[in-house]
Automatic annotation (TrEMBL):
Organism: Streptomyces purpureus
One biological process term in Gene Ontology: transmembrane transport
Segments forming domain ABC transporter: 46-298
Name the UniProt record assigns to this protein: ABC transporter domain-containing protein
Family, per entry: Belongs to the ABC transporter superfamily.
Keywords: ATP-binding, Nucleotide-binding, Transport
Length: 387
């Protein structure tokens, strides 16, 4: 009888699957409630901590072996505040668009955390992830390929309502789509037209209307004006500023055009080889930079008007100003696959030959390791001109 009692106690102590599912459902409900809670203006709404995304490099056909990795994003951290525009600039291939996809959870992060209202979206699934994606939308770079040519404008803008029917009832969707077209400056009667019947600027407005459909709190703008003419760029940027004030939106604005980034952004982050090299206000970044590869490295374009005189490059008012202690001659940018590629390399201006690199023991010298060919020595090669 005593043994039977022990067996009964063991059976009673076994966890019930139904109880486990109830706990998971309760946790998911708490996450959804936290995601849907409002955030005060000026409070952080998105917090990125040590975000990493490495794409493996493999060798072989049948038996693949990883021989390395492309460090597209390597330890990026920043905060986005409610109602703020954070601009992200950097050279092509530095990881800007990969960061945008990680923030949308379109790419799975190798490591790191992305907190939206205190919830790590890299670990969410189900209803909680669906709620996050409703509140974080994206405007893509290419207004031509980001719209389905087989769908009408009404179907493109109204498609988010099929996934989130609670936002707009089925009988009210046409009116909602027409309102969104009017908000972005398009004629509501265009609802039955196809994307090929619009210009590039009008297509980008359609993409913005699709991003606004679910009343999001954050919009990730991945170079939204880079494919547009200058006059159309100004119209789209002014529209985005107007919508931000009207709907209390927060933007992550990725672009190459430094003047547009400075115009629209409250703070600017500079990315280089997968890292956030510098972040601060526009005055700090543009006028008082601390990183050699800052936005001031770009030489300004022509004058502000057609009648302004063209100035020599050396005397141009927007020409890059060297940092204190920086040599005048610099090496070409290193390749992101090379070991130590994050270092900033300088030629030795005091060595007599401006084209020569300092040796490994030189106090101002810098080296990066280069992958060795079979039969070469073990020591790292020093990059020379033309390599």
């Amino acid at each position: 009888m005593a043994d039977l009692g022990k067996k009964d106690e063991a059976v009673d102590a076994t966890p019930n699957v139904t109880d486990v599912e109830t706990v998971d459902a309760a946790t998911e409900a708490e996450a959804v409630a936290a995601i849907e809670a409002p955030v005060e203006r000026g409070e952080p709404i998105l917090q990125v901590r040590n975000l990493v995304k490495h794409f493996p490099l493999t060798q072989g056909i049948l038996f693949k072996k990883q021989i390395g990795a492309v460090k597209a994003v390597d330890g990026v951290s920043f905060d986005l505040y409610q109602g703020e525009t954070l601009g992200i600039v950097g050279e092509s291939g530095c990881g800007k668009s990969t960061v945008a996809k990680l923030l949308m959870n379109l790419e799975r992060a190798t490591a790191g955390e992305v907190f939206y209202k205190g919830q790590d979206i890299t670990k969410l699934s189900g209803r909680a992830l669906k709620a996050v994606r409703r509140n974080i939308q994206m405007v893509f770079q290419d207004p031509y390929t980001s719209l389905n040519p087989r769908m009408t404008v009404g179907d493109i803008i109204g498609e988010p309502f099929d996934i989130h029917p609670e936002v707009a009832p089925k009988g009210d969707r046409r009116r909602k789509v027409q309102e969104l077209l009017d908000v972005v400056g398009l004629n509501p009667e265009y609802i039955n037209r196809y994307p090929h019947q619009f210009s590039g600027g009008q297509r980008q407005r359609i993409g913005i209307a699709r991003g606004l459909a679910l009343n999001p709190e954050i919009i990730i703008c991945d170079e939204p004006v880079s494919a547009l003419d200058v006059s159309v760029q100004a119209q789209v940027v002014n529209l985005m500023e107007k919508l931000q004030d009207e709907f209390n939106l927060s933007y992550v604005f990725i672009a190459h055009d430094l003047s547009i980034v400075r115009h629209i952004s409250d703070r600017v982050g500079v990315m280089y080889l997968g890292k956030m090299a510098e972040i601060g206000t526009d005055v700090q970044i543009y006028d008082h930079p601390t990183h050699p590869l800052h936005p001031g490295a770009a030489v300004g374009g022509p004058g502000p008007g057609p009648g302004s005189p063209r100035q020599p490059r050396a005397d141009h008012p927007h020409r890059r100003r060297p940092l204190a202690g920086e040599p005048a001659v610099r090496l070409p940018l290193p390749h992101p696959l090379l070991e130590g590629a994050g270092q900033v390399l300088h030629r030795d201006a005091a060595a007599g030959d401006p084209g020569a690199l300092p040796g490994p023991g030189h106090p101002g010298g810098a080296r990066i390791g280069v992958p060795l060919r079979r039969g070469e020595g073990r020591g790292p090669r020093v990059l020379t001109r033309g390599t």
